[in-house]
């Protein structure tokens, strides 16, 4: 899961089944139990809770590192990006294991950066980027360049702010050493600039890549704050939010539903469904009106980041049925759950 995309037919169980067993034996036992629990219950939060509680039962550093990595993957899969970032970072801080298949510390730091960016936390992402910017590994360095450009995009608020990251990405698109991340570079340029040539490059050079599937509507961008915050150049409507852009795709495709059943496991209890982050209050108000007309009771919250920027967050509180997320998706609204602190 190097990027922020998902297939419309993907399911959590498939993700677990095809996760390589690169962990030490006792960690494998816990992971096997987690997989079985995921088969017996659709409540993914309970699976995460089980793995968290099981960490204390292992003593080998390799097992702890493996379970921290697994927790990072689980939390990232369900959209808990802050938690995923923390688990990946903790895993990276434990001495590596000798198995060749295990993620290196640099790869774990990259996963933490990816999760931070997914959550819109470019400040944390930039701090971790600093720690591996001097990497001699060409693959790592390619991702460092890509994520640096994404961090610049996360900061952008005006057309002028887009000039530097777009220029960077266009230069990366021609570099042979950036080949491993070129699909992501092309997709980002297509999304931000609206230029059809980048979609064409994806179709021609990477016909089977998930990024290409996004441009054709066969896959969708995960509803992460990174894409909600991302402004677009004048070839698109700069005021258009991710939710508004996705609605055009949703008219042609069926959005897979996700079980967002409320849990009672303390901090894993879903308290609301989040539909969008906006810098512009008017955009948030327009979304709220659409949600209200669909029969829901949306609320508007303000978040002030450390940078001083105020964001407007549209949420719908979870009701007693625990199926608010499913109801919203059925009504055509992309959302993801917010858990109790």
Question: Top keywords for this entry?
Answer:
10% strand; disordered N terminus; globular; two-stranded antiparallel sheet; 341 residues; 16 helices; 4-stranded antiparallel β-sheet; alpha+beta
SS-derived structural category: alpha+beta
Proportion of residues in extended strands: 5-15%
**Beta strand count:** 6
Q: Indicate the low-confidence ranges by residue numbers.
A: 1-24, 235-267
Main sheet characteristics = 4 strands, antiparallel
What form results from the Cα inertia axes? Answer: globular
What is the fold's blueprint, element by element?
Elements: E1 5-7, H1 12-17, H2 25-40, H3 44-54, H4 61-77, H5 81-92, H6 105-118, H7 122-132, H8 138-155, H9 159-172, H10 182-193, H11 196-205, H12 210-216, E2 219-221, H13 225-229, H14 242-250, E3 270-278, H15 281-293, E4 299-304, E5 310-317, H16 324-330, E6 336-339
Antiparallel strand pairs: 1-2, 3-5, 3-6, 4-5
Helix pairs in contact: 2-3, 2-4, 4-5, 5-6, 6-7, 6-8, 7-8, 8-9, 9-10, 10-11, 10-12
Structure description:
By secondary structure, this protein is an alpha+beta fold. Helices cover 53% and strands 10% of the residues. It has 16 helices and six strands. It has helices at 12-17, 25-40, 44-54, 61-77, 81-92, 105-118, 122-132, 138-155, 159-172, 182-193, 196-205, 210-216, 225-229, 242-250, 281-293, 324-330, and strands at 5-7, 219-221, 270-278, 299-304, 310-317, 336-339. The chain has a four-stranded antiparallel β-sheet. Strands 1-2 form a two-stranded antiparallel ribbon. The chain starts with a strand and ends with a strand. The relative contact order is 0.10.
């Amino acid at each position: 899961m190097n990027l922020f995309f998902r297939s419309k037919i993907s399911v959590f169980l498939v993700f677990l089944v095809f996760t390589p067993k690169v962990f030490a034996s006792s960690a494998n036992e816990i992971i096997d139990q987690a997989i079985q629990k995921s088969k017996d219950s659709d409540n993914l939060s309970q699976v995460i809770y089980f793995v968290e509680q099981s960490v204390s039962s292992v003593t080998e550093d390799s097992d702890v590192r493996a379970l921290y990595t697994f927790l990072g993957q689980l939390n990232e899969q369900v959209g808990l990006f802050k938690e995923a970032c923390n688990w990946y970072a903790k895993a990276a801080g434990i001495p590596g294991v000798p198995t060749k298949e295990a993620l290196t510390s640099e790869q774990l730091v990259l996963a933490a950066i990816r999760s931070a960016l997914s959550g819109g936390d470019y400040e944390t992402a930039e701090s971790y980027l600093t720690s591996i910017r001097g990497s001699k590994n060409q693959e790592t360095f390619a991702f460092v360049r890509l994520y640096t450009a994404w961090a610049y995009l996360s900061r952008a608020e005006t057309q002028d702010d887009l000039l530097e990251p777009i220029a960077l990405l266009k230069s990366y698109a021609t570099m042979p050493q950036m080949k491993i991340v070129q699909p992501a570079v092309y997709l980002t340029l297509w999304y931000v600039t609206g230029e059809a040539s980048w979609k064409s490059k994806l179709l021609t050079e990477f016909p089977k890549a998930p990024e290409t599937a996004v441009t054709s509507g066969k896959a969708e961008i995960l509803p992460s704050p990174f894409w909600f915050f991302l402004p677009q150049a004048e070839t698109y409507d700069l005021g258009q939010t991710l939710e508004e852009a996705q609605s055009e795709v949703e008219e042609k495709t069926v959005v897979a539903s996700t079980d967002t059943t409320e849990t009672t496991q303390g901090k894993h209890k879903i308290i609301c469904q989040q539909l969008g982050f906006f810098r512009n209050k008017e955009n948030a108000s327009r979304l709220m009106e659409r949600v209200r007309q669909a029969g829901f009771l949306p609320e508007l919250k303000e978040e002030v980041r450390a940078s001083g920027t105020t964001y407007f967050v549209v949420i719908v509180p979870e009701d007693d049925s625990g199926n608010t997320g499913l109801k919203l998706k059925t009504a055509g609204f992309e959302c993801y759950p917010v858990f109790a602190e």
